[in-house]
Design a protein that fits this description.
Blueprint: H1 6-17, H2 24-38, H3 43-46, H4 69-79, E1 86-90, E2 93-98, H5 101-108, H6 120-124, H7 138-150, H8 154-159, H9 161-182, E3 185-186, H10 187-204, H11 213-230, H12 239-242, H13 249-277, H14 283-287, H15 291-302, H16 306-337, H17 339-353, H18 369-381, E4 392-393, E5 398-400, E6 403-405, E7 410-413, H19 415-419, H20 435-438, H21 463-480, E8 481-485, E9 495-497, E10 501-503, E11 508-513
Parallel strand pairs: 2-7
Antiparallel strand pairs: 1-2, 3-11, 4-7, 5-6, 8-11, 9-10
Bound molecules: protoporphyrin IX containing FE (HEM).
InterPro entries: Cyt_P450 (IPR001128), Cyt_P450_CS (IPR017972), Cyt_P450_E_grp-I (IPR002401), Cyt_P450_sf (IPR036396), Cytochrome_P450_78A (IPR051996)
Cofactor: heme
GO molecular function, one term: monooxygenase activity
């Protein structure tokens, strides 16, 4: 319904002018309120500078608090024919969303959108000092440079390959153990254990036993932080509510921050003590150092305080752990649902490893194009960040297509809508990895038909590390087991959007050893 709806106009007209009792002041107030309420894009747009109508729902849009916000937005864009750009308001926050590769590229690669809106929970958890939420500027640029060189460089990723293989093998053992014990596997738990240890190894140089001591504390911290960051917080959009903290988010964040400070602070201190004991480390030893060592080496030059370091390290754990787990869980759900695709991937792996003669290694991945196509197809059908995780913020006034976007507007890309659009993908709702065997599609941010890691200056810096991990562990899981549906629960592809797009009901399946 828009302000130009003739039915609405006539009702408003009759209400106002058929009753002589209505004073002109009240009539003016009612007209003003109705005009604001019915403005395309809603209240925040109606009250903004340079109002120029972009199609979008009027009033206040409640769909962002839905666990299927990506689908709600896609449906609205379709019904309003607003694929290129749609405007909406959540409280007093102005949003735009693109569901088209053209405008998506325009937004993501424009430096005007290189900032991110900071949610209250992220601020409270000190993430404004970490890379993902740091304002576009010198501090953020330094963090990107440091992590590109010391954490995400091809050399570092390959040097951690040996840990990934060992962790993958321990997950295979855990699957065997669960099958013997329960006759079924809840894969997410196994993957979570592996992924958290993988990140802990590369960031902290430390492995944890989950379910015991420090491991239990770490699991609790990650779970709580994940929930807090994923929650829709009304205070972010209605400033007055911020005073009340009626969802209790601020209180929980503050409690969590003090626990995180103790936990991560202790690890930093352990590193300091170790470094003092061996002041003159050799260059090759440095190469094997973890990210804490790297940050300590740079601490003075880069003016990083201890709390900055905690924020940077903690963010890596949040960003790096669950995205990988969620992508692998969706991929395995697809393998269970499509046995012929699973068998084809296993035949490809067997051809490279000589069937049971040896285990999968990191160097095999480049010879497994079909397996890589399966991961791409899963990213297309189930992008872990359907609205590209965290949004962008217009730093200054900017033009997108023919539309004026005022500074302070939050911009999003609905990647889920693009990857399910029949104009860009044939049979978009069919899981078909073959499409990526027929056509090479770059998924790292060049081709906005499929950019699950975002694009432009704030593209995901962990994308190569994530893909290296997912490819290897998928190959190990498929090489070792035939995956079947569990006799008591079918695969359920229902979604739930928290911080990432998760399976609503975790995958429970059976794994039969292949050798
Ligand atoms: C399947 C796995 C992953 C997916 C789908 C994913 C997706 C994304 C997306 C969509 C963004 C926003 C990009 C944009 O605004 O254009 C992002 C940002 C980010 N990701 Fe990832 N990510 C994954 C894994 C990782 C890993 C393993 C790490 C680190 C260990 C990581 C660290 C980050 C960081 C630090 C940012 C913020 C970058 C900035 O704002 O400058 N991600 N990721």
């Amino acid at each position: 319904m828009t302000s130009s709806d003739p039915y609405v106009d006539s009702v408003v007209f009759q209400l106002l002018f058929s009753r002589a009792a209505l004073s002109p002041a009240i009539a003016a107030a009612v007209i003003f309120t109705a005009a604001i309420w019915l403005f395309p894009g809603g209240i925040a747009w109606a009250l903004s500078r340079g109002r120029r109508s972009i199609p979008g729902p009027s009033g206040v849009f409640l769909g962002m608090s839905s666990s299927l916000a990506h689908r709600v937005l896609a449906g609205l864009a379709r019904s309003l024919d607003a694929f290129q750009l749609m405007a909406f308001s959540v409280g007093m926050t102005r949003f735009i969303v693109s569901s088209h590769p053209e405008t998506a590229k325009e937004i993501l690669s424009n430096s005007a959108f290189a900032d991110r809106p900071i949610k209250e929970s992220a601020y409270e958890l000190l993430f404004h000092r970490a890379m993902g939420f740091a304002p576009f500027g010198e501090y953020w640029r330094n963090l990107r440079r440091i992590s590109a060189t010391y954490l995400f460089s091809p050399r570092r990723i390959s040097s951690f390959g040996v840990h990934r293989v060992v962790i993958g093998e321990s997950m295979v053992d855990e699957v065997k153990h669960q099958m013997e014990r329960d006759g079924a596997v809840e894969l997410k738990k196994v993957l979570h254990f592996g992924s958290l240890n993988n990140i802990m190894m590369s960031v902290f140089g430390k492995r944890f036993d989950f379910g015991k001591g420090d491991g239990t504390e770490l699991e609790g911290l990650v779970k709580e932080g994940y929930q807090l960051l994923g929650m829709f917080n009304w205070s972010d959009h209605l400033p007055l509510l911020g005073l009340l903290d009626f969802q209790g988010i601020r209180r929980r964040c503050r409690k969590l921050v003090s626990r995180v400070n103790v936990f991560v602070g202790q690890i930093i201190e352990e590193h300091r003590i170790k470094r003092q004991a061996s002041r003159s480390r050799e260059a090759d030893e440095r190469e094997a150092a973890d990210f804490v060592d790297v940050l300590l080496d740079l601490q003075e030059d880069e003016k990083l305080s201890d709390s900055d370091m905690i924020a940077v390290l903690w963010e890596m754990i949040f960003r790096g752990t669950d995205t990988v787990v969620i992508l692998l869980e969706w991929t395995m759900a697809r393998m269970v649902l499509h046995p012929e695709i699973q068998a084809k991937a296993q035949a490809e792996i067997d051809a490279v490893t000589g069937s049971s003669s040896r285990a999968v290694s990191t160097s095999d991945i480049q010879n497994l194009p079909y397996l890589q196509a399966i991961v791409k197809e899963t990213l297309r059908m189930h992008p872990p960040g359907p609205l590209l995780s965290w949004a962008r913020l217009a730093i200054h006034d900017v033009q997108v297509g023919k539309h004026f976007i005022p500074a302070g507007t939050t911009a999003m890309v609905n990647m889920w809508s693009i990857t399910h659009d029949g104009r860009f993908w044939s049979e978009p709702n069919v899981f078909n990895p073959e499409r990526f065997m027929a056509e090479e599609v770059n998924i790292t941010g060049c081709d906005l038909r499929l950019a699950p890691f975002g694009a432009g200056r704030r593209v995901c810096p962990g994308k190569s590390m994530a893909l290296a991990t997912v490819h290897l562990w998928l190959a190990q899981l498929l090489h070792n087991f035939k995956w079947l549906p569990n006799s008591s629960s079918a695969v359920d592809l229902s979604e739930c959007l928290n911080m990432s797009l998760e399976m609503k009901n975790p995958l429970v399946c059976a794994a039969v050893p292949r050798f």
